[in-house]
Protein: D-glycerate dehydrogenase
Organism: Paenibacillus arenilitoris
Amino acid sequence: MKAKIYITRTIPEHAVRKLAEACEVDMWPEADIPVPREVLEEKIRDADGLYCMLTDAIDSRLLAGAPRLKVVSTMAVGFNNIDIEEASRRRIMVANTPGVLTETTADLTFALLMAAARRIVEASDFLRAGGWSAWSPMQLTGQDVYGATLGIIGMGRIGEALARRAKGFDMRVLYHNRSRKREAEQSMAIEYAEQDDLLAHSDFVCVMAPLTPDTRNLIGARELNLMKPSAILINSARGGIVDERALYDALASGTIWAAGLDVFEEEPVKLDHPLLTLSNVVTLPHIGSASIRTRTRMAEIAADSLLQGLSGELPAHLVN
Ligand code: DGY
């Protein structure tokens, strides 16, 4: 009998085909709308495998209603939406898609940094709104990227890829991480710093850590107060790591200069969110890994992991 799998979003066709060759596939028929919780609860009841997105809450209650579930494969590197402890307790394998999105996400993070520093979105809006009456000496002036100091909080694969880009702009790179990255320090001439020192000395602070109980609200009012008034905060990791209320206050009062955000505490962010009222914030709808090639590969890798787990092998990117 073929294993039954449920896919929580409409994914690229070749990944579906691959899964359908070995399994009985059921898929939520929408690409842009997440599967409603009640549908997921019903579908997971007799599923052997689940192919999910970062928008699905795979919590203990859901897992309790999935007696046959053997593998959860998420089309993402981050897995803060999955109760890993509970999955492990139930001997359910959880797999993610690391590696493949590293460079693409580092590209986007650097783009966000550049956009916030040089006011790219604001300048474009200004032109389209008819504000450009003449070239003007100090109009839309921003912060220099070249030669500035970049502080990276969370030095995993994407952090290292970001550091490589920064070196191309002749930036000094400080990083803070749970463990020292001595090889990267040597090969890229980057420097380890305590978090408070990094915040105080960086022109740009990029949050690149995973969201865990330890990193929730890692950047709050105290941390923002340590930053330079000319500094820019970039978050392309997870929304809950930065306290959005404190960030709004810091941006509105001039405690820091600007921010670039690809992620929010609640996604999609509400259109009346205070951060969206500020012109010194560049906001994006969680598109860090969104290149055609990378998302296509992520879809395939998540399918491969699901098939590996269902056939009794260990998935290539097992989380637990
Ligand atoms: C991930 O994979 O966790 C990213 O946030 C998706 O862009």
About this structure: The longest strand covers residues 3-7. The longest helix spans residues 292-310. The chain has a mean pLDDT of 98. The chain has two domains: 3-99+293-310, 102-283.
